[in-house]
Amino acid sequence: MRSRHPYRRYLGYALAVAAVLFAAFLLYRTLSQYKWEEVVAAVTSVSLERLLFALGFTAASYLCLTGFDWLALRYAGHPLSYPRAALASFTSLSLGHNIGLAALSSGAIRYRFYSRWGLGGEEVAKVIVFCGATVGLGLSVLGGVGLLTNAALAEEVIGISPALVYFIGACCIAVPAFYLLLSCIFGGRAVEIRGRRLEMPNFRLALPQIVIGTLNFAFVAGALHQAISALADVPYLEVAAVYVSANVATLITHAPGGLGVIESVVLYLLPNDNLIGAVLVFRFVYFLLPLVLGGILLISSEALLSDGRRERASGAA
To answer: Is 192 helix (H, G, I), strand (E, B) or coil?
Structure first.
């Protein structure tokens, strides 16, 4: 029996190709800012050890991101196997990080995967909301630690008094603590907001949510730290503190791949050095390499999953 809606299959292919082509355009736009000789010189100036550490931290970050989806699916009441959650997470986020407007770009790709596996629109929305909350909680914890341990740096960057720096840092730490408290009191209970039911995760989901969200940004900062350390000796916590501030700006501006934001971080930390090497290495390991892998996975999954559905439909007929 033929599909009642054959156009949906071709629409899926078209969306996958469009996403990959747009990602390829972003890749070209990023690299076209530099001469080929500059790219080669910048990358080869970074030691193999630093490059491998940066790749390791990047892999650890994306591993944490797959945990975002694995936990979110349990929160949505529709748990899937880890390989499925990891495939949807890595594919959607590797492209979403580069395209920008992550809630829409990665959200659309997530919906494409999860709708095939039985999730409805409301369940996918819960997954996206849960992952967004995990991002906020991770930034809050790492930002709080960075402010409290590097108050002088934060004072210099933001231009506020030390007392206010400590207050903001304490508030950042208090947010996840209050979130955990709410999970203990209201975990599993539904609250209706504008006609939609929103449940507070229970403690068994909220605690790993905070841990994995914090680890993700700690690993991203670690990858950036390794790239910067190839040029100068900068403490990790300084990189983490400035990176969190820059990442908040990225979320607000929705800059594709954090264009201009990462450069600002490196320029602030290394005002008298050539920043192209650190920027290119970090962009290569955290954005561009996952972008290529994610594009290949998206095209491959569209072909394989669609073929699998057609075979099951033929068998049922």
So the answer is: strand
Q: Kindly tell me the number of DSSP H helices and DSSP E strands found in the chain.
A: 13, 2
Q: Are 270 and 232 in contact (CB under 8 A)?
A: yes
Q: List, in order, residues 6 or more apart from 6 with CB less than 8 Å away.
A: none
Residues 6 or more apart whose CB falls under 8 angstroms from that of 132 comprise: 103
Residue 165 per-residue DSSP state = H
Q: What is the DSSP string of 198-231?
A: EEPPPHHHHHHHHHHHHHHHHHHHHHHHHHHHTT
| Distance separating alpha carbons of residues 195 and 53, to the nearest angstrom | 48
State the pTM of this model.
Answer: 0.80
Burial-class residue 222 by CB neighbours within 10 Å (0-12, 13-18, 19+).
Answer: buried
CB 127 within 8 A of CB 76: yes
Taking phi over 0 as left and psi of -120 to 50 as alpha, with beta for the rest, 188 belongs to left
For 288, how many CA atoms within 13 A lie in the half-sphere containing its CB? Answer: 15
CA distance 312 to 27: 37
The domain limits of the chain are 6-316
pLDDT tens, residue order, the chain (317 aa): 444 445 555 555 565 566 566 656 655 665 666 677 766 776 677 788 888 999 999 999 999 999 999 999 999 989 999 999 999 999 988 887 776 655 556 778 888 899 889 898 889 989 999 998 999 999 889 888 877 887 777 676 666 778 888 888 898 899 999 999 989 988 777 766 566 667 889 999 999 999 999 999 999 999 988 988 877 788 888 788 777 766 665 555 445 555 555 666 666 666 655 666 777 788 889 988 898 888 888 888 877 766 555 445 444 44
Report which of 97, 139, 134 is spatially closest to residue 241, judged by C-alpha positions: 139
Residues 176, 168: contact at Cβ < 8 Å? no
